Amino acid sequence: MNLKLFKKKKYLTIMVDHAVTINTGEIQDKTFLDNNVDRLIEWYSNNILKGQSNIEDKYFEPRELSNFIDKIAVWYELRYPDYEIDRMYEPYVKDGKNINKVMFQNNPYIKELLDGNDDVNALDWNDFYNKDVFINSLSWKELYHLKKPEYPVSVQLDSKNEISFLLNKDGTVAKANGLDDDKIKGMHIKDVLEVLKSKNLISMHNNLEKIIKDYEDRDYLSNEILNAAMHRIMERGGNVIGSRRGLLFAKEFGLDVNVPMEYGIDLNNPNLKEFINECIKSGGDINLVCHNDLSIQEIITMENKKGRYTLEEDELHQRLVDILDSQVDQEVVDEDIKQKRIERKLEKSKRM
């Protein structure tokens, strides 16, 4: 397979041995991001498409899968444009573009259709173009790639054997024909396969291994499409915006938030601690070693030495000051001030 067909455009290029930090031009010694999409495409060709005789399908289907991954990444960029990502980490920014105004309030079509209806101000673009809406807009083939796989309703052990099974969607046996149904019923078909192997009741060319592999391949593909999309989102957006957007995607789809945290470290980013804090609150590992060989804990210490504190930390500091201030006995303070004034007057009279 010629993987060159599926390489990114120049501005999305990711190097295998060295990484280009897009925002700063800095060259890292370790890989910035694995070429996750290309590796998935190669796996797809070697597993899902293995044995297909249709040359056109073997050529076009990997391209379609790559395009689908791009489509997911572009959807997320449309849902969370760069300026909206910035607004999330720049709490003091009041001006600039606002996606709700762009899509709803200043949309000529909506303004004409609703004739100044104030209800449009209540619409939120992020919620409007949500995950369910996007998934429901996909083609049947794209949906098939993302859908959780199911085991077939029935399977025969092999072509020469009368043993067969009725299966539930998750692969547990609902009924066994030709075997002791009471012992087999409720077992997972993978466990049944091992039992049959141990008793030499199964041939090399059996149908159980095939349906199990098909199920596991489809399950792997549906999960890895989302992982590949997260990597593509990060590649397209760069190590600051891309990683922030990748974190949102990871949280929404239940992916590993350590991935955007590991590759989203830019020491020149003034909002780095906000990003790290969000990752950690979402389940990220504070001891994670990033692509620059520094742990998250070390980076936090470095940022603190620079005097960089998040808005949340500033608010915590202020609340601590307010609490301490409220606990001071003002009468004691006043009496102390009065006593010091008396002492100064006595000292002054002695000198006279």
Can you tell me about this structure?
- The strands form 2 sheets. The chain has a 3-stranded antiparallel sheet, covered by helices on one side. The chain has a two-stranded antiparallel sheet with strand order 1-2.
- Helix 2 (55-79) runs parallel beside helix 11 (207-253).
- The N and C termini lie far apart (102 Å).
- By secondary structure, it is mainly alpha-helical.
- The protein contains 16 helices and 5 strands.
Question: Would you summarize the structure shown here?
Answer:
The chain has helices at residues 36-47, 55-79, 82-89, 99-105, 108-114, 125-128, 131-136, 140-146, 181-184, 189-198, 207-253, 258-263, 272-281, 296-305, 311-326, 330-351; strands spanning 19-20, 27-28, 154-156, 164-167, 173-177. The chain has 352 residues and is mainly α.
Helix/strand order, N-terminal first? EEHHHHHHHHEEEHHHHHHHH
Helices and strands: which structural class? mainly alpha
Mean pLDDT score, rounded? 80
Q: How many β-strand stretches?
A: 5
Cα radius of gyration in angstroms: 30 Å
What is the general shape?
A: elongated
